[in-house]
Write a structure and sequence with these properties.
Strand content: 5-15%
Shape: elongated
Largest sheet: 3 strands, antiparallel
Order of helices and strands: HHEHEEEHEEEEHHHHEHEEHE
Strand order of the largest sheet: 1-10-11
Distance between the termini: 70 Å
Mean pLDDT: 80
Number of strands: 12
Helix content: 25-40%
Low-confidence stretches: 290-330, 339-360
Length: about 350
């Protein structure tokens, strides 16, 4: 005889923790040829059930990241915000905030993951200057070199580096101030545009486009434009134009956090990962990240010794930072974050905190 079971299931809300991170993992899965020959095959495998996916998410850090965004951007008219937190020691993505409310029924861009750049990415601003600093160190420009630091400067462009009708590159400091002369070190601390424009010129032996190419090479070595992210459709191709050093190129928080993590880890690069293993009830040995292989140092930024160049980008003595001090052997929690307006006005309104020192 049929009788009620007496169960009181909780009402389904449709919400779950870290939705932008979950979407990132899904995108990683369906773009990964390890799980099927076609995207349709991978989607079938992902959604049929039976998979156990172990991720790198740290729930406590995720809550902290969400709280940090909410505490700063509190008004409805504030820009949108995104954040990615990566452990420099492993490359593991431990937190990701991709927008205001993934589950909003009224926000037309609620499910656009701004942490991965959304539709357009976001201009890097002065956060790109450290990559020029790495390129400068690699090419023999020391931190003590001095440059003129007026409020603005014009740099001649060779024919192959000119936009139509542009014979000169006009560069202005953000606040319009000048400083006489500055060392590369002080210009980095103060984020001085005119000095970094001259550095790019010198990197290219008078050709700012050639100098920009060296800056982009350093950025890629550190983690910008990561091939694994590109396979997922995350990131945009970088153009070797002079203004790249001033942050004109489009980036996202995942690749920027990854690149800064390489600097925090004394140049040892671990590509960003969100999944440590995938097991299948039908095929138990489906996929596992090779931790030993992933832990191999991809690039080195070890100060100024030419002997380290074979590893990528310059060098300081092993186990020391650029000042000769022993670093923290366990850097933790490198963060890439950006605040931005809605997608329709992304180029019309600057985000909070876009200006300031190149290295936080």
């Amino acid at each position: 005889m049929a009788a009620p079971l007496g169960l009181r299931p909780a009402p389904a809300t449709g919400r779950y923790p870290a939705p932008y991170f979950v979407q990132f993992v899904k995108d990683w899965f369906v773009s990964n040829p390890a799980f099927g020959a076609t995207r349709t095959d991978r989607e079938d495998l992902l959604y049929r059930g039976g998979l156990r996916i172990h991720t790198t998410l740290d729930p406590a850090l995720q809550r902290d990241a969400q709280r940090a965004v909410r505490q700063i951007l509190i008004e409805r008219t504030d820009p949108y915000a995104a954040m990615t937190v990566i452990d420099p020691r492993t490359g593991e993505i431990e937190a990701m905030v991709g927008g205001r409310d993934y589950f909003s029924k009224t926000d037309p861009v609620a499910q656009v993951n701004l942490a991965t750049g959304g539709v357009t990415g976001r201009q890097a601003g002065s956060s790109f200057k450290p990559f020029a600093l790495v390129a400068a160190l690699e090419n023999g420009i020391p931190p003590e070199r001095t440059y003129q630091a007026p409020s603005s400067i014009q740099i001649a462009l060779p024919p192959n580096c000119r936009a139509p009708g542009k014979l000169m590159w006009d560069v202005h400091n953000f606040d319009g101030s000048g400083s006489g002369t500055l060392t590369v070190e002080q210009a980095t601390i103060d984020s001085v545009n005119v000095v970094y424009a001259q550095i790019v010129r010198d990197l290219g032996a008078g050709d700012p486009c050639a100098g920009a190419a060296k800056v982009l090479a350093a950025a890629r070595a550190l983690g910008v434009s990561d091939p694994g992210l590109a396979r997922m459709g995350v990131g945009h191709a970088l153009q070797a134009v002079p203004s790249a050093v001033l942050g004109a190129e489009q980036v996202n928080t995942v690749e920027m956090a990854s690149a800064y993590a390489t600097l925090a880890n004394l140049g040892y690069r671990f590509p960003p990962i969100a999944v440590t293993s995938v097991t299948d009830a039908l095929r138990p040995s489906r996929h596992r990240q090779d931790r030993d292989l992933a832990a191999l140092p991809r690039r080195l930024v070890r100060g100024r010794r030419p002997a380290a160049r074979r590893s990528g980008v310059g060098g300081v003595p092993a186990g020391r930072d650029a000042d000769g001090r022993a670093p923290d052997p366990h850097p933790r929690g490198t963060r890439g974050d950006v605040a931005r307006p809605d997608l329709e006005r992304v180029h019309a309104q600057s985000h909070r905190g876009a200006q300031g020192p190149a290295v936080p």
